[in-house]
Write a structure and sequence with these properties.
The structure holds two protein chains of two kinds.
Chain A lengths: L6 H4 L7 H23 L6 E2 L23 E3 L11 E3 L2 H4 L1 H13 L5 H18 L1 H4 L29 H37 L1 H16 L2 H11 L4 H10 L3 H14 L3 H8 L4 H37 L10 H10 L8 H25 L3 H9 L2
Antiparallel strand pairs in A: 1-3, 2-3
Helix pairs in contact in A: 5-7, 5-15, 7-8, 7-10, 7-11, 7-13, 7-15, 8-11, 11-13, 12-13, 13-14, 13-15, 14-15
Chain B lengths: L1 H27 L4 H6 L7 H11 L5 H13 L5 E2 L4 E2 H36 L4 H14 L3 H15 L14 H34 L3 H8 L4 H13 L1 H24 L5 H10 L3 H29 L1 H4 L3
Antiparallel strand pairs in B: 1-2
Helix pairs in contact in B: 1-13, 5-6, 5-8, 5-10, 5-11, 5-13, 6-8, 7-8, 7-11, 8-10, 8-11, 9-10, 11-12, 11-13, 12-13
The chains are: A mainly alpha, B mainly alpha.
């Protein structure tokens, strides 16, 4: 097997430009440093990188097979990485279905700490619960047994005041709680993204107007407003989703605006403007792909806070009684005697599920956030 | 000066938005505006309803209604609760003091706790203790407020019997009130602290890389004095803005905690108003909460200018 080789070492490029030459030297240093770093990584065997820069060209990754290697897979540059590297395929990656997720994990794997991975698994578990409740749940949630039963073999978590099996209710509630969270986060992300992009890209009076509006909405106390709207509008899940979505986009809009302001000054946006692409085209093909990494964590956090809001509103009796979410279960346990009778198996599981699920979503969201050092490099990317 | 004008304009439009929302909600929501304005479960005959309609001016044009509404607001007239048979402003006045006490004490405690722990956790984020605290605060910030309140009530009041589980006091003395408020305040303070902690930790992690921190170390200062004399001062600036924005969040958190601990503040009032569909009371409560959040934000802006000289003298 061919040892790692850095092209700069073998054939030192001679640049006429002093500036470029200095840059090449810096790159070489970075290359050597990266090598040491990669050697320590146990997950990535046989790494060699090939990188050459022609004078005049901004940045090129040359992908070359090392002589001894049979098959190579080319990993794209991860944001913040200086060099692209070539890696021999492991057997999992030879199966096409696995390849994309594995590459993605390797790219972002270093961002995901232990907690984030735990969050990911927990989230997958809850997603399974939400998608296939009938697969897990022992009974239908509407089926009735003896009310107020303590946990037993036939009912792992006992039964509630009207005799429904609590465990089955728990599984079916996952779908509603998570649907409210994700749907309202989708709405708020869409609004926040649009407003942030528009005000960051067009600046001037559009910016003043939209950001002024954002600041005004930011001050409105959300929960009291949702309480009063919920009281007028008679409870339904869809109204809840809409109201939660319409009221939680401000922080995203601010962040997207700040990022857009930075990116619109970068070389590729300037050249796209020079070539006469429409603002819409530039925003969708040049700017959005470069702000996904700030939007994604915000999306997850919006989901988490929407789930908490849903649970809180259900507690006040403003949820949809026909669709029993976790918050609704907790509310019933409180108002219908589960708490006074000290039936911990009634009020603890939904509460714990909400907490764990929200935590899983938030942890995955934190995992997407790039580390402080990487953001600078991404910004400089011209 | 320019930014001050902008800020003022922003607050004025927020105020206008809140008032307009409050005016528009009962009139544009589905259903009969009269029903929306007096509450749903009140039984009134047709004749009385017409009387109320003319009295409230619902058959006049919207502009006139709006100006009448604004004039009413200037006289602190927030409407009349047909459920409780008294003006909304009087009902709110009697209750809001307790809620403000609960929120105020918790905000102060939460800020102190969050800043101190956040500073330590950000200074040495890799130690086991600090990682544990970090995880703990993430867990708290991911819990719905009322669930934590339920847990505290269940464990400390029901199981262990350490604290009372109902009301503000047995006898109206400071000791009794403090004893009754201990659990609710600690729940709310934990929430406030969890949010401050997360911001403070991130802020300290950023600030300690700055050159002035390095310089302080080069002068030979100890860790604690670098942290508390230099880094904390700069790192706690974002907390001021956060506190103001969080005031609304904590206010709503307090509502849930009051319901769980059966405290007779705004929360129980709003809960009863939701169950009884007492719309005037709900609206009045919303207006009062929104305005107090607005005031908190203005106060925070002034405080920010007083604390940070860079804001006062823009370059």
């Amino acid at each position: 097997m061919q040892k790692e080789t850095c092209v700069h070492e073998k054939e030192p490029c001679v640049y006429e430009d002093v500036e470029l030459q200095r840059e090449a030297r810096v790159r070489k240093k970075a290359c050597i440093k990266k090598e040491a770093y990669l050697e320590k990584e146990p997950g990535i065997p046989d790494v060699g990188y090939v990188q050459k820069k022609a004078p005049g060209q901004k940045e090129v990754d040359i992908l070359k097979k090392a002589p001894g290697q049979k098959e190579v897979d080319i990993l794209k540059k991860a944001p913040g990485q200086n060099e692209a590297y070539i890696k021999q395929r492991t057997w999992q990656e030879k199966i096409p279905v696995f390849r994309q997720p594995i590459i993605y994990l390797q790219k972002y794997g270093k961002f995901l700490g232990t907690f984030n991975r735990a969050g990911l698994f927990l989230l997958l578990f809850f997603l399974c619960m939400a998608l296939l409740p009938s697969f897990f749940a022992p009974y239908s949630p509407a089926e009735r047994f003896t009310p107020y039963e303590a946990p037993s073999v036939s009912h792992f978590l006992g039964t509630n005041d009207i005799g429904n099996d609590i465990l089955s209710e728990l599984f079916y509630g996952a779908r509603i709680s998570m649907m409210v969270g994700f749907a309202s986060a989708c709405i708020s992300t869409l609004i926040g993204l649009t407003i942030g992009l528009l005000s960051g890209y067009f600046r001037g009076w559009v910016d003043e107007l939209l950001m002024g509006f954002t600041d005004v909405v930011l001050i409105l106390p959300k929960i009291p407003l949702i309480i009063i709207l919920g009281a007028f509008l008679h409870p339904s899940v869809w109204i809840l989703i809409l109201v939660l979505g319409l009221l939680s986009w401000e922080s995203l809009a601010r962040i997207v605006r700040a990022k857009t302001l930075q990116i619109r000054e970068s070389g590729y946006v300037k050249s796209a403007r020079g070539m006469g692409f429409s603002p819409f085209h530039i925003m969708s093909t040049d700017i959005i792909p470069n702000i996904v990494h700030v939007v994604l964590p915000k999306f997850m956090l919006a989901t988490a806070s929407a789930m908490i809001s849903e649970a809180s509103l259900s507690f006040l009796g403003l949820g949809d009684t026909s669709m029993k979410s976790w918050g609704m279960m907790l509310s019933f346990a409180f108002s219908r005697g589960g708490f006074i009778r000290e039936m911990w198996w009634w009020y603890m599981p939904p509460g714990l599920c909400i907490t764990l699920c929200v935590m899983a979503i938030a942890l995955v969201g934190f995992g997407f956030e790039p580390k402080a050092g990487d953001t600078e490099k991404q910004v400089v990317d011209i | 000066m320019h930014s001050a004008v902008k800020k003022t304009l922003r607050y004025l439009s927020s105020f206008a938005l809140i008032v307009t929302l409050n005016f528009a909600l009962p009139r544009f929501m589905p259903g009969d505006p009269v029903k929306n304005l007096i509450g749903e479960d009140v039984y009134v005959s047709e004749a009385v309803m017409e009387e109320i309609r003319t009295e409230l001016g619902l058959n006049r044009p919207l502009i006139e209604q709006f100006s009448a509404y604004l004039q009413g607001l200037l006289r602190f007239d927030l409407g009349y609760s047909y459920h409780l048979h008294s003006p909304v402003s009087e009902v709110l006045q009697a209750r809001i003091g307790w809620t403000l006490l609960l929120v105020g004490v918790s905000v102060v405690l939460g800020a102190i706790l969050g800043i101190l722990l956040g500073a330590y956790a950000g200074w040495k984020p890799e130690t086991k203790l600090n990682r544990g605290i970090y995880c703990g605060f993430i867990a708290i910030s991911c819990t719905p407020p009322y669930f934590l309140a339920l847990l505290f009530l269940g464990i400390f009041a029901f199981k262990l019997g350490l604290f009372p589980f109902k009301g503000f006091y047995d006898t109206p003395t400071i000791g009794s009130v403090a004893y009754h408020l201990f659990l609710p305040v600690s729940v709310l303070a934990l929430f406030s602290a969890s949010r401050n902690f997360l911001v403070m930790r991130g802020s300290v992690i950023q600030e300690k890389e700055q050159l002035y921190a390095l310089y302080a170390r080069a002068k030979g200062l100890y860790d604690t004095s670098i942290l508390f004399r230099h880094v904390v001062k700069n790192a706690s600036l974002p907390i001021i803005t956060l506190l103001a924005l969080d005031f609304g969040f904590l206010f709503s958190g307090a509502l849930f905690i009051e319901i769980v601990f059966s405290l007779n503040g705004m929360g129980t009032l709003i809960y009863d108003a939701i169950i009884g569909k007492d719309y005037p009371l709900l609206q009045g409560a919303f207006l009062v909460i929104a305005l107090s959040v607005l005031l908190a934000n203005i106060f925070a802006d002034l405080l920010y200018a007083a604390v940070d000289p860079r804001v006062r003298r823009p370059a």
